[in-house]
Amino acid sequence: MNDRITLSRRGFLAGTTVIGGAALLSACVGTGGAAGGGGASGALTLQSSLSDPAPKAALASVVKSYKGKVTLNTVAIEQFRAQLSTYLTSSAPPDVLTWYAGSVANDYASKDLLLDVSDLWKSGGACANFPPALKALSTAASGKQIFVPTNYYWWGIFHKKSAFAEWGITQPKTWDEFLAVCDKLKSKGISPLTMGTGSTPWVASGWFDYLDLRVNGATFHRELLAGKHSFDSTEVRNVMKHYAEILPFIDPNAPSYSWQEAVTPLVQNKSAMYLIGAFVTQSVPTEQVDDIDFFSVPTIDSSIPSAEEAPTDGYFASAKTGNKKGTLDLLAYLAAPKTQQDFIATSKSSNLPTSPDVNTSGFSPLVQKGVKLLAETKEITQFFNRDSSDALQTTADTALTKFMAQPGDVSSILKDWQTAAEKVWKA
Amino acid sequence: MTQTALLAARSQRAPGAKRPKGRSRLARVPRIIWVFLLLPLAAELALVFWPALNSFSLSMTTWNGVGPAVNVGFKNYQDLLTDPIYQTALINNVIWVVGFGGASVIIGLALAVALNRPRRGIGIYRSVIYLPMVLSLAVTGIFWRVLYQPDGTLNLRLEAIGLGFLKHQWLADPNTALYAVLIAAVWRQVGYIMVLYLAGLKGVDPALEEAASVDGATAWQRFWRIVMPQLSGVNSIVFAVTVIDSLRTFDIVWAMTRGGPYNSTQLLSTYMFQESFTVLNLGYGSAIAVTIFLLAIVFIITYLVRATREES
What we know:
The complex is a heterodimer. By secondary structure, chain A is an alpha/beta fold. Chain A contains 18 helices and twelve strands. The longest helix of chain A is centred in the first third of the chain and has 33 residues. Chain B is mainly alpha-helical. Chain B is built from 15 helices and two strands. A two-stranded antiparallel sheet of chain B has the order 1-2. In chain B, helix 9 runs antiparallel to helix 12 and helix 14 runs antiparallel to helix 15. Chain B is flat, with a radius of gyration of 25 Å. The interface between A and B is large, with 40 and 39 residues.
């Protein structure tokens, strides 16, 4: 009796071990396979950071119309950023990934992790007709193209046409006119500028970038972000002087809001203007989108060439893809005019197509105005983090949000900023 | 699993037989038990200890996740000494351990004592106080962020009861932000501590208390001299749980402030996350992680030493 029980218990234990072991093994296999896939014959993997509902659905529908088989993995952007290097260095990386043009892509390219997509940029290729500025942005130090830009957007001071009419205000052209408008609005009890630096402190860099572009110009701005000038310099101090001029006009609740929450006062006519990217239209109620207009940040020094920020989004591919031909074909499909048009239409953003062959006549007047703005400007930059690095962005977040709270401490803030930035450049 | 193993091991022993010693005793443990002991050990080694050791070696390098890591010796640790954000985070962590630990234990214990006696509707009170524990920390964080908004419930209530001058941007002011987050975290933790103490109070012998009361001890004396000593077992559990919970706090701060405004609510854990995964300074982030580990181990070793001493 006793023996029988022992035996059956043993049998049970052995059985569980086998099952447990098998589960463990299959779990290992699972983790190995989940990272990538895409053998020469299998489906291609597209790793996407577009986790907002509308762009996510737009990419899914675009991918569905592709002739080949594609597995779309959407990952929340924070996690995507943190794991990007893991994706690219894994033994079975995703074939195609969404990301930004600029410093990060170039950094990966210098480590030979990105697929050379120069074929797409040669005449007859999908990107052949793209503007030269975009080609320069997509070219790595080696001279090869490693990026396929598919859409970009502009920054500007957004406002409601109906509200401006109600308050008797027209779009200012110069800095003094802009300050006068702010004064007038404030005297009416309206907060002139809305902003959200609470959980999205990077928004504070928007004004910094633009004021630096207007006061010192694009060349200085690029060099500053590359570490060739000091943040504790006369030029930057000058930028902060202008920044200090607008601080009294910023909604006092700005430090508590995120950029999305800061849209609410604008929509409710409690706030008048908002310096932000064109993606803001996603957060405006549908019936008000047609009421939204924008103007470029006013000129401060007319001797400085005009410049605008136009962050560029798109795709790069892993150098280790098992199916180079299929990957290039998918990239060509994603860059094609029809695909760009479909994506922009479904994603509800006000992004601009990178392909000149997209028929923009159907786009809203706002988007057409954006196209014109970027076509006419002399210089294009992207945004603080895209022109430098995410590490430098955190130093800017600290310095600028602190400056907004304690503008009197500007000297020590700039000194600390420079110290923190030097650490980043040296790393 | 260990329990099954012990049971099985016990069943092998013939009743009344002399206790086997040393090797012979080990040899009598059936092979399958070894499998069950060694498999989890292997998993633990591979999935916990090996990565932990890796982060020690990583903390001696500078690495952004791509390419080879460059060895820099103790440079990351030297940099920590002069890093103003690290110092803020360290001080905040001390405030956090003391504030979070102290407040949740005091309030939790008070609630447990108050809700220990059977009364009508006591179950409802207990469940309501325990309920926040069911929510994830991220949800708690978002919920409290809404309460603390400039036009949020807290400010509106203050205004309604004539305390409008106290209206404040709770999470945007570096002087209040950390404490605002702390309150949210304590709100969630007290229910847990209360349940632990309620369980402990069930084991307190009521006869002792009655005897003391007959002898003329006041309620205060009865609590400190009769009840508390009997709670010492629960106390050490609560102490360990609280210290570990406060050192690993991350989610609620990240959900509410992300360490801002300008790093004033940064804890060691959030700063470690930011350095490692936002900025991709994996070497520096690992150095911060190692210091968190060392702090935790100091507390845990003192706790274990005390616990074993008390047992013997």
